[in-house]
Structures are given as C-alpha cells and as structure tokens.
Amino acid sequence: MGERFEIVPGRGRVRVDNNPFIAITDNREYRPRESAYERTKRQVYATGNKWAIENFHATHD
C-alpha cells in the first residue's frame, strides 16, 4: 500500500494521509482538508462572477 495522492486545482498533486482532515502537499506543507462546501465556495469566489456568487449563497446558505 503506497502513498495516496489527490489532485487539487492550483496546488497540484497532494499526498493524502490516513487522517481525513489533513493533507500534505508535495513540499511537506500541512493544511486542513477542505470540505466540499469550502472548496466550492473558494472556486466560485475565484471566478469573480457576481451572479455565480449570488447563486451560491442562495442555494447553500
């Protein structure tokens, strides 16, 4: 059983530990794993599309 990796947009390949709340990037940087809500919110805000942001809040808050 080797190391597991996941692909994170903007961060590249990220090693995944057994801990479901922590991910380790290739440069050994520890960071908390994002939930689906946080990941989607970050992606919507990155677009800068005000209608997408408004729609995100209408459907998720």
Overall description:
There is one protein chain. By secondary structure, this protein is an alpha+beta fold. It contains two helices and four strands. It has helices spanning 36-47, 50-60; strands at residues 4-8, 12-16, 22-25, 30-32. Strands 1-2-3-4 form a four-stranded antiparallel beta sheet, with no helix packed on it. Strand 3 and strand 4 form a beta hairpin. Helix 1 runs antiparallel to helix 2 (50-60). The longest helix is centred in the C-terminal third of the chain and has 12 residues, at 36-47. The model has no long low-confidence stretch (mean pLDDT 76).
Biggest sheet strand order reads 1-2-3-4
Question: What value does the average pLDDT take?
Answer: 76
The dominant shape is: elongated
How far do the termini sit from each other? 40 Å
Rg, alpha carbons = 14 Å
Taking pLDDT < 50 over at least 5 consecutive residues as the criterion, the unreliable ranges are none
Q: Helix coverage percent of residues?
A: 25-40%
Number of strands: 4
What is the string of helix and strand elements? EEEEHH
Largest sheet: 4 strands, antiparallel
Structural class: alpha+beta
Q: What fraction of the residues are assigned to beta strands by DSSP?
A: 25-35%
Helix tally equals 2
Question: What keyword list fits this structure?
Answer:
2 helices, alpha+beta, 4-stranded antiparallel sheet, 61 residues
Gist of the model:
With 61 residues, this protein is an alpha+beta fold. Helices cover 38% and strands 28% of the residues.
